[in-house]
Every structure is written in structure tokens, then in C-alpha cells.
Amino acid sequence: MLREKQMSGVNGWVMMAVLIAAAAGTVAMLIRTGKDAEHPFPMMIALLVALGLEFVCLFGCTVLNPNEAKVVQLFGSYVGTMKEAGFWWVNPLTTRRRVSLRVRNFESSKLKVNDQDGNPIEIASVIVWRVVETAEALFNVDDYEQFVHVQSESAVRILATSYPYDSHGEGMSLRMSVVEIAHKLRDEIQERLTTAGMEVIEARISHLAYAPEIANTMLRRQQANAIIAARQKIVEGAVGMVEMALDLLSSKGVVQLDEERKASMVSNLLVVLCSDRDAQPIVNTGTLYQ
After folding, report:
1. Which residue, 193, 210, 227, sits at the end of a domain?
2. Is the dihedral of CA 75, 77, 79, 85 positive or negative?
3. Are 199 and 189 in contact (CB under 8 A)?
4. Does residue 93 share a domain with residue 136?
5. Cα–Cα distance list, 262 to 245, 256, 287 (Å)
6. Within a domain: residue 287?
7. Tens-place pLDDT, residues 58-69
8. CA distance 33 to 287
9. Beta pairing partners, 89
10. Cα–chain-centroid distance for residue 237?
């Protein structure tokens, strides 16, 4: 597999000065030869060829911006990659392809897939990536930007089918395990993009929802689960409060309660504590047994 190798060029300003000075000298010799020599034609041809070569050498000058690389090829062979910003000169017969090393974002389109439970969901992601190996990015794949798009959407599909939308309190889920799912998604995409010389800096889910055809049903299910969970908390708290009340009454000797009276008191306290409405006070003028 082709690997990146770095190269450096000749200082462009120095080479530009040398070429200009050589061209000026060639022109001066060309003028003097035309005036003084007996047979100037062969010499003039040689000087014209030299001037043409000096002009061609000017095409070896190239500018490299920060966070930019240029992949250098000579007649189809990979020569190396220039990454140091500045003004440089290389062999004018080489071709130089620009590759951006800047950090880039990619947001996938909304994909409709089935989660682990078979529920249709809509999911989209944001991928932050950059090129780190220019030779692999250019020569191992046809179009590395398109490669990022296709492989990212494929990884999102696989991730969505591997976890449920909501775990209902058990295991990881797409909705609740945000950080863990983001790490899983990043690792999945990085594994696919390594062969193309790219690094995934961050990957996260940007959109997650049930598909429209089941959204209302799932919303009612979530509401029911929330109500059940709230009721469980209320009952647990109420039982603790009743137990505490009975222990305090018994330890302080406020009143002596038999089992039947305790059961009645527990029933009344649970009704008051667990009801979703305010209790209505009732004054009992009799006794429990009348």
C-alpha cells in the first residue's frame, strides 16, 4: 500500500533570483552574439534554447499555504508530499495536486432505518474529519470526500441497527447513551476511513426521532413509561414515610395500635400520599369498631 513521504523544495525566492539573473545574462549574450560573431546562427539557436529552458523552469515555482499540502508526481510516479508553507521551487516537469489539511465538517442526510427492536427511526450525524495521509487519500480511493460521505452514512446505519432507540432502563440506547454512542460511531467511521488516510476527530448524532408513522404511538408509550416510573417513586416514598410514622408513634408511646388499627392507618396514609389529588379531611366521631 502506498504511504506518504515528505519532501521539500528549493527556496523559491532564491531560485527566482537565479533564473532571472540567468535569463538576463542569456539575453545579453544573445544581443552581443548577433552583433559581433561571424556566424551567429548556431550560437543564437543555443542561446534561444537556453532562454526557453529558463522560462520553463519558472513553472517549477509553487506557493504552499498553511494547512495545505501538495502531492508531487513525476510522469505518474509519486515523488513526495510538500507540507511546509512558503514559496518553493520543484522540478517543473512534475505535477502538483493540492490537498487541504484543514478540519472539515460533514452532516449526513436523515436516514430512515430500523433500530435493534425493529422500530423505524430517523437518524443523522455530524462528522468532523481531516486528511492526515495525503498519498493514501489521493491514490487509495477515487474521491476521498465522497468516500467520507458514503462510509459515514454506512456506519450510521450499522450503529442504528445495533442499539435500540430507547432501552427503558436496561443497557445502552441511542437516546440515552449519548456519549457512549458518539464514541462507538467515531470508532466505526475511523475504522472505515483509515485506508484513505483520514482522521475522524469527532462524530455525533445530530438528529434522532421515531419515523412519522409510529411517532404518536411511541410518544404515548414514553408518556406511559414516565407515569409508571413516577408512580413507582411515589409508592416507594410513601411506604418509607408510613414505616417511619409507625416507628415514631411506637417509639414515643403516642398511641398503642393493634394490627387492625395499623392496617387502617397504613391504608389511610397510602391513600393520602399516593393520590394525585388533595385529600378531603373527614372527622370520625365514632370508633374503628362502631
Report:
1. 210
2. positive
3. no
4. no
5. 11, 9, 14
6. no
7. 888 889 999 899
8. 137
9. 10, 61
10. 43
Question: Where does a domain end: 100, 130, 156?
Answer: 100
Q: Residue 285 is placed in which grid cell?
A: 366521631
Query: Is the pLDDT confidence value at 229 over 70?
Result: yes
Task: Please indicate, yes or no, whether the overall pTM of this predicted structure exceeds 0.70.
Answer: no
Structural domains of the chain, count: 3
**Domain residues for 20?**
10-100
Q: Which residue has the higher pLDDT, 43 or 99?
A: 99
